[in-house]
Design a protein that fits this description.
Elements lengths: L2 H4 L8 H7 L6 H4 L4 H11 L4 E9 L5 E9 L6 E6 L7 H15 L8 E7 L3 H6 L25 H10 L7 H17 L1 H9 L18 H12 L7 E14 L2 E5 L6 H10 L3 E3 L14 H9 L4 E9 L3 H16 L8 H14 L4 H26 L18
Parallel strand pairs: 3-4, 3-5, 5-8, 6-7
Antiparallel strand pairs: 1-2, 2-4, 6-8
Bound molecules: zinc ion.
Zinc ion binds next to loops.
Pfam family, one: DUF2817
InterPro entries: DUF2817
Protein name: DUF2817 domain-containing protein
């Protein structure tokens, strides 16, 4: 039966045609923005009560102000809070911002469960978001920056061994080939996982290197502390955090990655709230490896095990080799290429970063919004149960009593 015969009126458009034109992808074009500036404007238009934490002394490519914008929706006294973060890793914010805008539109015509509120944290790393860099203005990977610096930074011997080879002086020719060879030998000797740990787990020695966790808390890290204070998050009964990332995993799939250790109370709650789609780096079921200094440590210090969830909603884009290529070009530009992101090479690198971390493809974006709605719906439903006392929390009390920043 043809599509035409299925309809009972010749004037109706074909269903296939409607879907191809994107008619049913209602949220895709209004949710995804073309620049940081536009994303910020769109979010502020929907969050007139937002508090802006402006980054001093730096601007974006259009001389625009850079800011972390935070909006609270719902009962200010709510016991349970869902925090949705975008832009921890700069241009990955185009995706997270899309989910936030989709939800802000949905919320205009709906209400939240009793005793549950939402906090939108837009552009946690606004400099990286505006300039298409994964790292902050300090060259720091924000999701490696939350170690306890007073206690000393963790070692990464694999990184130390390969440090000269991660960002070679040239992107082609003998030095590039020598670096590829050294990396190949390391993989042969130690395996792919050990290589991933060397490259990505985080390092605290080399500000010009990849996945640098910083020498101290970054501006964005301190801003997150201010946000938690401003909205009294430490005194809530339960806080669930969904931090939206991109660039790892199958194209368009949103993997809900738990950063909790497998034996924790929070992990148990994550499993109950989201079911078997939650993956764990600790258990080896995630595409991600265990990393140093993630935002999870911040929330752990703030609330303690069993009173919070920190989950990364990580959307796949292109494969690992493509990610390595684009991140290498980005880092090379800063270490060996002068760091100008406005010139021809800089614009090209920025374009590659954008295309890698937020593919310009309506189907990818549709998959993002679909999975985003699913995960956030599950989170809200879980939090409603926690608020009503129907969800057993078996958190272990903190050793030193009250939660503290
Ligand atoms: Zn990320």
């Amino acid at each position: 039966m043809s599509e035409q015969a299925a309809g009972d009126g010749g004037n109706r458009p074909y269903l296939g045609e409607r879907l191809r034109r994107g008619e049913l992808l209602v949220s895709v074009s209004p949710s995804f923005s073309g620049s940081y500036k536009q994303a910020r404007q769109n979010v502020l238009a929907r969050l007139p009560q937002a508090r802006s934490f402006v980054l001093p002394g730096l601007v974006g490519p259009d001389d625009e102000e850079l800011s972390v914008d935070v909006g609270w929706i719902g009962d200010p006294q709510a016991a349970c809070v869902l925090v949705i973060i975008s832009g921890t890793h700069g241009p990955e914010g185009f995706c997270g911002s899309g989910i936030q805008l989709d939800w802000l539109a949905l919320l205009e015509a709906s209400r939240l469960p009793e005793n549950v509120a939402l906090v939108f944290v837009h552009g946690l790393n606004p400099h990286g978001f505006a300039w298409d860099r994964r790292v902050t203005q300090e060259g720091c990977d924000l999701n490696r920056n939350f170690i306890d610096f007073a206690a000393g930074a963790p070692a990464n011997p694999g990184y130390d061994e390969l440090r000269a080879h991660f960002v070679p002086p040239s992107l082609e020719g003998p030095s590039f080939e020598a670096s590829r060879e050294a990396i190949g030998k390391f993989k042969q000797a130690h395996g792919e996982r050990a290589f991933q740990i060397a490259r990505k787990a985080g390092q605290y020695t080399d500000p010009g290197g990849m996945f640098f966790g910083g020498f101290h808390r970054s501006w964005s890290g301190r801003t997150l502390e201010s946000i938690a204070q401003e909205y009294k998050l430490a005194s809530r009964k339960f806080v669930a955090v969904v931090d939206v990332h991109t660039g790892l995993g199958p194209y368009g799939y949103g993997e809900l990655q738990s950063e909790h250790v497998a034996a924790s109370a929070s992990q148990l709650i994550a499993d109950q709230m989201f079911g078997p789609s939650v993956t764990s780096a600790d258990l080896g079921t995630s595409t991600s490896i265990p990393i140093h200094g993630s935002l999870q440590l911040f929330w752990e210090r703030l609330l303690g095990d069993g009173r919070y969830l920190y989950l990364c909603l990580e959307y796949g884009t292109f494969n690992t080799e493509a990610a390595q290529r684009v991140l290498l070009a980005d880092q090379w530009l800063h270490v060996h290429g002068g760091g100008d992101r406005s010139g021809a090479l800089g614009r090209e690198v920025r374009g590659c970063m954008r295309a890698h971390f937020c593919p310009d493809d309506p189907s990818w974006k549709e998959a993002v919004l679909f999975r985003g709605r699913q995960v956030l719906r599950q989170a809200l439903s879980g939090l409603a149960q926690v608020a009503e006392g129907e969800f057993a929390l078996e958190g272990t009390p903190r050793k030193n009593g009250e939660p503290a920043l």
